[in-house]
Amino acid sequence: MRLLHSDNSSIVILTQAGQPCIRYIGPRLASTVTESELRCILSEPLPNGALDDRPQISVASTYADPTFMEPALKILCQGRHWAPQFQLQDESGSAEHIEYRLLDPKTGLLLVWRLGVCAENDVFTLDCQFENTGADPIAIVQWLTTLPIPKAMSAVKAFTGRWVHEFQPQDCSIPLGVLEFKNIKGRSSHDHFPGLLIADAQLNEHSGSCFGFHLGWSGNHCQRVERSQNGLTQYQAGIELMPGELELTPGGRFQAAPLYFTHTEQGLGGIAQNFQRFVRAEILRFPSDRPRPVHINTWEAIYFDHRQSELDALAAAAQDCGIERFVLDDGWFTARRNDRAGLGDWVVDTEVYPDGLHPLKDTLAAHQLSFGLWFEPEMVNKDSNLFRQHPDWLLQLDDLTQSSGRNQWVLDISRAEVTDYLFNQIDTLLREYPIEYIKWDMNRDLSQAGNGQGRPVYHRYVTSLYDLLARLRAAHPSVEIESCASGGGRMDYGILRHTQRFWLSDCNDANERQTMQQWAGLFFPSEVLGSHVGPDKSHTTSRSHALAVRAGTALFGHMGVEWDVREASGADREALTHFIGLYKELRGHIHSGIRRPLQTPDKHQIGFTVAYQDGLLVSVFQQTMPELATPGPLLLPMLDPQARYRLRILIQPEHANHLMKQPPDWLVAENLELSGELLLRCGLALPVLDPESLLVLQLDRVPD
């Protein structure tokens, strides 16, 4: 028997018929648990009409297992070995990990299955590596890291979406059968985020037993939840392999994508706490410890209209508002006057910038703005010097018609000469200019992703991307990289090991962003979620919001501005400057605190808190018309009942008199101190809010 404990959870593995099987995942067990007692109470009846052995889900199930469920591993060797049966060769363990070495004697396929734990954050990591120790090639058809799920779990919350509409929750019941979420778009995708939740029927923001899963992979993937008539339930996740994509020659190895998972009895808030802390401790690495600077991105301000005078004026206006970083978006390189030409030619367009980017560099220095630059290295236009010189560098299959995406095609970065070219082009610019930030974009999905020999390279594409990013980070350790993929099309822990920021969506509409940020916050801390203040009228939805709503939404991510602030009125500039100042005041709390979903009294509200050392930030966004005439009290469970808190109203609707004859007393009181116990037990009576309006509060602990 092997046990692995986090601070609040335990995993127990028993060996049955020579196979390691996870028999318990859940709340932490006492260390005095005995194997004999556990086997006794877990031994289930063997029903009539079934095989003569009790089926159990092993850590490496195959077609040789008697569960009649989807196997973790599918292989083919010599056209006849397709049902491997592993034998346990060795096992080891410590307080931080458990490792099994399993060998299939017929094929020589060795599996090293390793379970690690970050105890203080209650997150477990499953790493699996295969090695062909035999004499014949072995085709790996499928590996899905597999975990048994307790029968009490009945609900699945997955996350779907599309361009400008990312991170939309999708609630399902676990059926007798299969739920499958499969992505074959070559990147993590908008459609199926590589993570989900499995919970009991009592799940809410603050309570309920819940498992959170995330596959750390930036390409094709599959997630499955299966429940069988035999009483077993399993979750599976892994890289989705194309036919013939992965063959292990003798001595060859395959590293599966890591699976991260956590368990909590504290509902959605517990999942958010565990994953956010884990990412900060184990995944995320910033070039420095300075506060996250406020961006201005030029895309929605100028699009392809790059003129030095316009950029100078935009930089001056940005400085006046307190902005700290200037990101020059698409349009600065050769022939890039529209989206039909230039990709691949990462050289400054001397027709637009006759002196290169040096005048812009000087402008930014004069306005105390750091320099960021947009790239889309993985892509190429056919109207480019690169394509004319190397038409064979595309991902393509001979004699097949392939669709373009945004007038562009994908480079085969599995080829060393392609990644060498890209590294050299980017490296040259980073050495010539004081660029401290790269916006790394990817604006199309992969299709027909074959190499020059016609073999699929979706898997090698992702590992080659990781290698290229690691190479650039090693050469330029002070440069920060953002992962953008038509917005949030490539968001996962795999890419986050090489980057420091996500562009969550190309949509800056505050209403849409509130939903996206709420659910993305279950898996990612606020400081990696780029969130920008857009113009009054959204460029993607044509919806308008008050500046306080736009800024109050961006406040809780890594704040930026996607707006031509030169055109803003004096009052709007003054207000934007105020909100940027508020972000600077609070970013230390927001980027170190834990964001948790908050159960609100009105089902049409999105609420959350950010808990920091001595206080709490509270946000309530009213999406649509309130359900009732008076919303009711907002309970604040993260407060210390023994403490008192000083209330500060940071953002409230500017015009709300038409909704209330009289507002709640606390909304108009000054220098108000409140009991933590009363706020926790009785709550704070909310005002009536207009649709698409925002209330943001701060509660600071009063010193004893």
Defining key terms:
704 residues; 38 strands; EC 3.2.1.22; Beta-galactosidase, Chain A, domain 5; Alpha-galactosidase; Immunoglobulin-like; alpha+beta; GH; TIM Barrel; 10-stranded antiparallel beta sheet; 3 domains
Can you characterise this structure?
This protein is of the alpha+beta class and about 700 residues long. The protein has 3 domains: about 60-275, Beta-galactosidase, Chain A, domain 5 (Distorted Sandwich); about 295-585, Alpha-Beta Barrel (TIM Barrel), CATH 3.20.20; about 600-700, Immunoglobulin-like (Sandwich), CATH 2.60.40. Helices cover about 20% and strands about 30% of the residues. The chain contains 14 helices and 38 strands. Strands 5, 6, 7, 8, 11, 12, 14, 15, 19 and 20 form a 10-stranded antiparallel sheet that branches. Strands 21-22-23-26-27-28-29-30 form an 8-stranded parallel β-barrel, surrounded by 5 helices. α4 (about 310-320) packs parallel to α5, α7 packs parallel to α8 (about 460-475) and α11 (about 545-555) packs parallel to α12. The chain is globular and about 80 Å long.
Give a topology summary.
Layout: E1 2-5, E2 9-16, E3 19-27, H1 35-42, E4 73-76, E5 87-93, E6 97-104, E7 109-118, E8 123-132, E9 138-143, E10 145-148, E11 155-162, E12 165-173, E13 177-183, E14 195-199, E15 210-215, E16 221-227, E17 233-239, E18 247-248, E19 253-255, E20 259-264, H2 267-283, E21 295-297, H3 299-302, H4 308-320, E22 325-328, H5 358-366, E23 370-375, E24 379-380, H6 385-389, E25 409-410, H7 416-432, E26 435-440, H8 458-475, E27 480-483, H9 493-496, E28 501-503, H10 510-520, E29 529-533, H11 547-554, E30 558-561, H12 570-590, E31 594-598, E32 605-612, E33 615-622, E34 633-634, E35 644-651, H13 665-668, E36 673-675, H14 676-681, E37 684-685, E38 693-701
Parallel strand pairs: 21-22, 21-30, 22-23, 23-26, 26-27, 27-28, 28-29, 29-30
Antiparallel strand pairs: 1-2, 2-3, 4-9, 5-6, 6-7, 7-8, 8-19, 8-20, 9-18, 10-17, 11-12, 11-14, 13-16, 14-15, 15-20, 16-17, 24-25, 31-32, 32-33, 33-38, 34-37, 35-36, 35-38
Helix pairs in contact: 4-5, 7-8, 11-12
